[in-house]
Amino acid sequence: MSDLYAVIGNPIGHTKSPLIHTAFAEQTGQPIHYTAIEGSLGGFAGAVDAFRAAGGRGLNITAPFKLDAFAYATDLTAAAQVAGAVNAMKFDGDRVLADNFDGVGLVRDIIHNLACPIAGRCVLLLGAGGAARGALPPILAEKPSHVVIVNRTFAKARQLAEAFAHTGPVDAEAYSALRDQPFDIILNATSASQCGEFLPVHGDIFAPDCLAYELVYGKGLTPFLKMARDNGVRRLVDGVGMLVEQAAEAFVWWRGVRPDTRPVIEKLTVPLLEA
Ligand code: NDP
Phi and psi dihedrals of 30, rounded to 5? Predict the structure, then answer.
């Protein structure tokens, strides 16, 4: 008898989570069955109640339900509280344990898979939404020389920087102030690339050996990555590694076994071709 897990989102047709977790289960011999649930907008709690009643053991949560999951949880980890959003839950009787593995997944991808240390490097974080909030604490824990956050709504960048200034060297700046300061690692944690939009940044933000990391995945050469390439950056990556690494963290949390992420990342990697 398999244990039941799922991902819930809306829309959900694009999700790679069943493929990822099924590959992890086969690799580790864990008896799990993993499906995808399209929750109706406004119907998150009802869908999760039904899943639990059917014996569901845990869920991944994707857009637009990460805040609903935060509200639904009874026990939030520090990472979930910091992100203000939940992307994984497990059920234990009446308790709903909730975590957010996006940030730790991103940092694992950068350090382990891409062999790019964060320690001592200058990091630019574009965006101040849920993904950026989740990413900031594990990035600061790696002891970068400096982190700068910029966001379209500047107040959100400032608020985020202020909330973590006691844990490391982090500041907020406006897009317009980003001149003549090259960064070693630039993370696009905005959703601008989802709609093919360019960010108002100058080409001089890219240091010669810069890692340009687009959190959106599977979209080929996004406007951000195109801009990085056109300014001489050779290390261009999208968020497929982050996606698989956050899934692996949830798998470990649920099952107590760490899967090998490399073959799954290779399987899901889409070449960064011109869109
Ligand atoms: P949120 O909706 O919480 O935040 C969106 C962010 O993007 C905000 O900072 C917003 O700025 C900014 N933004 C949106 N449109 C524009 C624009 N046209 N120009 C400039 N800034 C813009 O989303 P998330 O933080 O949850 O996700 C961000 C991206 O990261 C998404 O594209 C998502 O797909 C990706 N992601 C990838 C993951 C992976 O596993 N690879 C995991 C999680 C997220 P403002 O505050 O001003 O509105």
Answer: -80, 135
H and E: helices and strands count for the chain: 10, 12
Closest to 257 (Cα-Cα) out of 1, 3, 61: 3
CB of residue 157 inside a 6 A radius of ligand 1: no
Q: Measured in angstroms, how far is the CA atom of residue 207 from the centroid of ligand 1?
A: 23
97-107 pLDDT tens trace: 999 999 999 99
Would residue 66 show up in a list of annotated catalytic residues for this protein? Answer: yes
Work out how many domains the chain is built from and give that number.
Answer: 2
For residue 274, being part of any structural domain is answered with no
- Is 126 near ligand 1, meaning CB less than 6 Å away? no
Domain of 8, in residue numbers: 3-100+241-268
Residues 13, 71 share a domain: yes
35-49 pLDDT per residue, tens: 999 999 999 999 999
The response to whether 154 counts as a known ligand-binding position is: yes
